[in-house]
Amino acid sequence: MTEEAMVTNRHPSAATLASYVAGKLGQAAGVAVAAHLLQCKRCLTVAATAEDDGRLLIGELPLSPLASGALQRTLNRIQLAPAPPSIGLSPPPVMDLCRRAATMLGRLGWPTPQLRWVAPGVRVGVLLQERCSRFGCETLFVLRVKPGVALPSHSHVGLELTCVLEGSFADESGRYGIGDMAEAEDNVSHRPVAEGPADCICLIATQGRLRFPGLLGRLVGTYLRI
C-alpha cells in the first residue's frame, strides 16, 4: 500500500472502532472497518494501541479456576451449534472490479464477487448475508456506481458502514474518497451520488434492511434483499 493511498479524511467513530477492537461488531461490519484500516494509518495505529492496552488489562486480571467439566461442556456446545442460515444469491457475472478494489478484497480474504445490474449505472455483488436476532439480517456487499449516478434516498434499520475502494461519492454529510469510511446510524437518511471520472466502488456493511421511501427504491431493495 502506497503512502498516498494510506491518507484518508473520513474515519469510523470512536465507538465503532472500539467495538471492532473488542470483537463486538458483526462479521459484515468488521470486514468494512478492516478495509478502512488497510488504507488508514491513523485508525490502524489507534486500533493497535487499544489492542495492546486490552492485552495488558487482561494480563492483570486475577485467575479464576474453571468449574469441573467446563471445557468439555464448551466443546460440546461448539460441536452441536447449528450453522447460521444464509440467504443464497446466484447472480450472473456482469463485470469485474478494478484491480485496486479486487486487491483490497483479496487482502481481506474475500473473492471478487460477481456483479449484477440493478439500475442504470448501478451494479451490486453480495458477499455475505446472514440472519441475526437483533436486526433481522446483516449484509456485506460491493457496490459499483457510474459517475454522476445517484442512488435512491434511503435510511437504515441499524448501522451502515461504507468504505470507498475506488472513486468517490458525496451525500448530505460530505464527500468521501478512496479509503474513507461513511458511518450512517438508523436516524440518518441520505442519497449518495457517485463523483469523479472513475466509477465509485464501495464495500458496504448493513445491519437490517435498508428503508426506501420510493417505489423504485423499494423494488431494488426487495430484489437485492438488502
Question: Can you give a write-up of this model?
Answer:
Residues 114-206 form the ChrR-like cupin domain. This is ChrR family anti-sigma-E factor. With 226 residues, the chain is α+β, with helices and mostly antiparallel strands. The protein has one domain (8-226): Jelly Rolls. The chain is built from six helices and eleven strands. It has helices at residues 14-21, 27-37, 41-60, 70-80, 99-107, 215-224; strands at residues 116-119, 122-132, 136-145, 155-156, 160-166, 168-171, 174-176, 181-184, 193-195, 200-207, 210-211. The strands form three sheets. Strands 1-2-3-10-5-8 form a six-stranded antiparallel sheet. A hairpin with a 2-residue loop joins β6 and β7 (174-176). α1 (14-21) packs across α3 (41-60). The protein is globular and about 65 Å long.
